[in-house]
Design a protein that fits this description.
heterodimer; A: 330 residues; alpha/beta; seven-stranded mixed β-sheet; six-stranded mixed β-sheet; 8 helices; 19 strands; 23% helix; 24% strand; globular; B: 546 residues; alpha+beta; seven-stranded antiparallel β-sheet; 20 helices; 21 strands; 38% helix; 23% strand
């Protein structure tokens, strides 16, 4: 393989976003563009106002839920190839949330794979990560340190169940991302001993319904109203988005305990600093082993990392595997 | 009754922000575990076990060696986590080590009285092997506690006060009594725990109880309208506030935080025990410069506070003094309800009586506060401004007719503190914090101008709000010029107001000056770096003070 300058890479960084010049197409752009490939429907992976979006069917439905019905969006099945300017493009499951995908580009017999956000762990609310072979891999590395090692999700769900039932006098407020994490937690918690009521905030409730429409089995929850009787909430679980954890919203409740479900909660200092009573380390991103496994199984000879601290991971790969770690530069 | 229960206790205490909840959790733990494990738990939770069996560095090297793990990678993780014991715990999780027959039922007692102390009997190779063994045998949930005890870094947000409260609640006995029982060399044993929860109080315990402290308020403008003669003036010392109690021959020395500190200051306790009268005195403990008759810096006092049973040489190196400023009880008579001016007369009367006993020279460790007599309020201000010369923080003003009440009662005592010294300086370096601040850049270095150059003059890490810390952290990451390990040099762009207590010449620093207690008091976003102060300004400040 010949060494090339940054400008010659099929996919490169432009204005802080991934961009394929040959197809004039952007991946998860943070500003309005002509053509945007969307890996999944989290707010930091799409923006309003693009002329055209391209995604999987599930992502499209979730996107419309968030942006509105009047967007122009083209959808493809997982594995279905389509062509833009002679480049073969296809979506593959990334296991992050419902509809989430890796995107593969093939051009002149050279394969590029954008991992999107991904995890390898079991999650019944979305398709499992699919190993895709590639020459170039652009991988996320949100949790790119070996201190991150996820527990099985059923263990975390049992911990959550215990946390609630140990404080029957309290309302247990669990903060989690409204799309993906909330549904995964509901799915796991429904299998535990906790049989009390579960309430969810409007934003989460809406996503639950979208999942259900897409055929995912999600436990029914009660949409939380501002004027719920306090006694009614005793001993129950209330799912809220993290944005409500600071500010006056919590004044609607009395006698509460709070927790945050996030991979970052595996570090004590972060847990303490977060201000929640408790942290449940569960993530929809890959841990260190997960990233290494994907790098290896993809058989990529060249890897780029983005999203996160990539220094340690890069150095480790260079020292331990015969993998070339490349940098886009900004 | 196992290490497992204690690990669970740790998790529960660690994940609760509610004091009442923590007390409840502790109470339940004590009720459901063996006395011997309970006494070990108290020993650990009160921080009496800071013995380090191996260092954090050793732990990291050992892990690196056993599992062939690059040291740089462990160090990188450390920067994120801020605690060696925790880093290794997290990394152990990632090593799918072969799990041998599990030591899941090892008791806290066995681990602490045998397994860990026995390590020091082994040679290095055997020790390493044994630690590896224990890592593999102990259930994963217990690794953190184990590693923390090994490295002597077991610390948790549980104060002695909380333990005291939970035991007090469990057996329905006043906190002061429990506090008294917890003092001293608490040796973990069944007996020491049973003594702690004994429902019968002996007389000596009752006799040691301090009175609630009366605290000073910040000065209010309205007091300047009153006659200066209505008030008593004293220097405000920067020491430890204490009540010195002698009743029925027993001396107890209590801090304002309800801590009994007899053991830290045995020479004082010894001297006081020879005085014939019984009394309760309120005053300040200081490390004293006997030659110049002023207090040494608080930093020297810190060398004494946390050191139990100080050696003779420590006692000589850091000589202490107790300065009494109030008499609350004399020979069994509670005099807190009489006026301050009369209490002062009693205090002076008794002190001179004690002082004149030839066989017990107390003045090398005990005196009463000097009174100051300003002519008028402007004169009081002059005194206040002079307070730095004798290493005090300003003045304490007390109403002569006030009784000794409790708490921050309005209209009794006031503090009139001297303003801090300040300079505007430029942020030039940042370093990652540890512990709770791990993963954020929270230790900063500041510089002043010297001609066209910025010269480092102080480091500070306190004073910013959490929101400001996060904002600054973001800025630091974007404006790094160079990285040296955990330190980043930064684009000179941000100006901060730095306050400090003292400024003096120092040959050790490139700037030629050293400041005491530097802290950030304002983020001067309104200033650009050319508005920052120069070293010359600092020298001028120094001249003005001295």
């Amino acid at each position: 393989m010949v060494l090339r300058t940054k400008q010659e890479y099929l996919i490169r960084y432009k204005d802080g976003n991934l961009y394929c010049e040959l197809a004039d197409i952007w991946i998860d752009p943070s500003k309005p563009v002509k053509k945007a490939l969307i890996t999944h429907a989290h707010f930091d992976h799409f923006t309003f106002g693009c002329e055209e979006y391209i995604s999987t069917n599930e992502t499209a439905i979730l996107l419309k839920e968030r942006i509105g019905d009047n967007i122009k969006i083209k959808t493809f099945e997982y594995g279905e190839e389509f062509k833009i300017n002679g480049i073969n493009i296809s979506f593959h499951p990334s296991g992050h949330i419902l509809g989430s995908s890796q995107i593969r580009f093939i051009f002149a017999e050279e394969k590029w794979l954008i991992s999107g956000d991904f995890k390898l762990q079991k999650d019944e609310t979305c398709k499992r990560y699919e190993i895709v072979k590639t020459d170039y891999l652009i991988s996320e590395c949100t949790f790119g340190l070996p201190i991150f090692k996820w527990d099985e999700s059923n263990k975390i769900a049992n911990d959550i169940s215990k946390w609630i039932t140990n404080s029957p006098e309290k309302s247990s407020l669990l903060f989690c991302y409204s799309l993906g994490k909330a549904q995964r937690l509901l799915n796991e918690i429904s299998k535990t001993n906790f049989k009390g009521n579960i309430y969810s905030h409007g934003s989460i409730h809406k996503m639950n319904n979208s999942y259900k429409k897409l055929g995912i089995d999600i436990k029914d929850t009660i949409k939380i109203e501002n004027k719920k009787k306090i006694d009614e909430l005793k001993g129950s679980l209330i799912l809220l988005p993290p944005s409500l954890s600071k500010g006056s919203y919590l004044k609607n409740f009395k006698n509460i305990q709070t927790a945050f479900a996030s991979g970052w909660m595996s570090i004590r200092a972060l847990r303490k600093r977060s201000g929640y009573d408790k942290g449940f380390p569960i993530s929809d991103h890959a841990d260190w082993d997960g990233i290494l496994e994907v790098v290896k199984k993809s058989e990529a000879k060249n890897v780029f990392f983005h999203h996160g601290d990539s220094e340690a991971l890069s150095k480790f790969l260079v020292e331990n595997e015969s993998i070339n770690v490349l940098f886009f530069g900004k | 009754m196992s290490l497992k229960n204690f690990s669970e206790l740790f998790v529960e205490l660690d994940s609760s922000n509610s004091i009442n909840n923590k007390i409840e959790v502790l109470k339940n733990y004590f009720l459901s575990n063996d006395p011997i494990d309970n006494s070990w738990a108290i020993y650990l939770l009160t921080g009496k076990s800071n013995k380090r069996f191996i260092s954090g560095r050793y732990l990291k090297n050992l892990f690196s060696q056993i599992y062939e793990y690059p040291e740089w990678l462990i160090d990188t993780c450390y920067l994120k986590v801020g605690d060696s014991a925790e880093v290794i715990t997290l990394l152990l999780k990632n090593k799918s080590t072969p799990r041998k027959k599990k030591l899941s039922n090892i008791s806290l007692n066995e681990l602490l009285s045998k397994t860990i102390p026995d390590l020091s009997k082994l040679n290095e190779e055997e020790k390493n092997l044994q630690i590896k063994n224990l890592w593999e045998k102990l259930p994963e949930d217990n690794h953190l506690i184990f590693n923390k005890i090994l490295t002597g870094t077991f610390r948790i947000g549980v104060s002695i006060g909380l333990i005291t409260k939970s035991i007090s609640k469990q057996i329905n006995i006043d906190e002061e009594i429990i506090s008294h029982r917890l003092m001293g060399n608490f040796e973990p044993s069944i007996d020491s725990y049973e003594f702690l929860i004994n429902k019968n109080i002996n007389l000596q315990e009752l006799n040691s109880k301090p009175f609630p402290f009366l605290l000073a308020n910040t000065i209010e403008d309205k007091i300047f309208k009153h006659s200066i003669n209505d008030f008593q003036f004293e220097w405000k010392y920067d020491g430890i506030r204490m009540q010195l109690i002698k009743r029925s021959g027993n001396v107890s020395l209590w801090t304002r935080g309800q801590e009994l500190v007899n053991e830290s200051f045995p020479e004082l306790v010894e001297k006081i025990s020879h005085i014939k009268d019984d009394f309760v005195l309120d005053g300040e403990l200081l490390v004293w410069n006997f030659k110049e008759q002023i207090a040494f810096d608080f930093s020297l006092l810190q060398k004494r506070i946390n050191r139990k049973s100080p050696t003779r040489s420590i006692q000589i190196k850091y000589p202490i003094i107790f300065i009494a400023y109030d008499l609350l009880e004399i020979n069994g008579r509670d005099i807190r309800e009489i006026k301050l001016e009369n209490r002062r007369i009693e205090l002076e009367k008794y002190f001179s009586k004690w002082q004149n006993k030839n066989d017990n020279n107390i003045s090398d460790i005990f005196k009463i506060s000097d009174l100051i007599y300003p002519k008028d309020w402007p004169d009081a201000l002059t005194y206040k401004e002079k307070s730095r010369e004798n290493n005090t923080e300003g003045l304490i003003i007390k109403k002569k007719t006030s009784i000794y009440s409790s708490g921050r009662k309005k209209g009794f005592w006031w503090k009139y503190k001297v303003d801090p010294m300040q300079l505007d300086a430029v942020l030039i370096y940042a370093k990652g914090g540890s512990g709770r601040r791990a993963g954020l850049y929270t230790d900063y270095s500041f510089a002043l101008w010297k001609d066209q150059e910025l010269i480092k003059f102080a480091s500070a890490y306190s004073g910013l709000t959490n929101i400001e810390i996060k904002e600054l952290d973001k800025w630091i990451r974007k404006n790094t010029i160079e990285k040296f390990g955990p330190i980043r040099s930064l684009k000179p762009e941000m100006v901060f107001e730095i306050s400090f207590e003292k400024i003096q010449i120092s040959k050790r620093h490139k700037s030629g000056i050293a400041v005491r207690f530097p802290r950030i008091t304002k983020w001067r976003k309104d200033k650009n770096i050319n508005d920052a102060d120069s070293l010359e300004n600092a020298y001028e400040l120094m001249k003005k003070i001295s």
